[in-house]
Amino acid sequence: MIVLDTDVLIEIFDKRSIRGDEALTKLLERSEDVATTVINLHEILYGLEKYARPVKDVLLLPVIEYTKRDAQLSAELELKAESLGKPSRRADAMIAAIVLNRGASLYTFDLKHFNVFKNFGLKLLQL
Fold first, then answer.
1. DSSP string, 64-75
2. Which residues of the chain carry a pLDDT beneath 50?
3. What's the CA gap between 67 and 102, in Å, rounded?
4. Count of CB atoms within 10 A of residue 76's CB?
5. Nearest of 6, 74, 73 to residue 37 by alpha carbon
6. What is the dihedral of CA 62, 19, 42, 124, to 10 degrees?
7. What are the distances in angstroms from CA 93 to CA 63, 79, 100, 124?
8. Phi/psi of residue 103, each to 5°?
9. How far apart are alpha carbons 96 and 117 in whole angstroms?
């Protein structure tokens, strides 16, 4: 399974984005299940609502919920990142935990936000 980060979703839903078109083409070529997390859904819905863009299409995506197990892992990941001197955004630790707990890969354009979690097994896609 491939989990899409907010920055990838933004590009895909931007009808004028060449980067988004390329990302979508690469995803379709892989023939894997694709989803996003409830955290990413919040982030993209906030942006779409703020800028008065349609939200209908994004609501069609499968969404992975945030569970108690994810909360436990995300707290551990955030603390481990801090101990390495590489503090992360809480939302990024939450997304990383959801992806790790499902054995999925994260497709993001913002690798610097998630590189620290590679040390703990997070698989990042670079399509």
1. EPP-HHHHHHHH
2. none
3. 11
4. 13
5. 6
6. 70
7. 17, 9, 10, 14
8. 65, 30
9. 7
Residues 55-86 have pLDDT tens digits of 777 888 999 999 999 999 999 999 999 999 99
CA angle 49, 18, 113 (to 5 degrees): 65
Print the domain residue range for 64.
2-125
Q: For the chain, what is the domain count?
A: 1
b/e map 20-48, b = 16+ CB within 10 Å: beebbeebeeeeeebbbbebbbebbeebb
Domain containing residue 62: CATH number: 3.40.50.1010
**Cβ-proximal residues to 77 (8 Å cutoff; 6+ apart), any chain:** 88, 93, 96, 97, 100, 117, 120
pTM (global) more than 0.90: yes
Tokens for 70, please give them.
């994810």
How far apart CA 110 and CA 125 sit, in angstroms, is 11
CA distance 58 to 9: 8
Q: Which two tokens stand for residue 123?
A: 């698989």
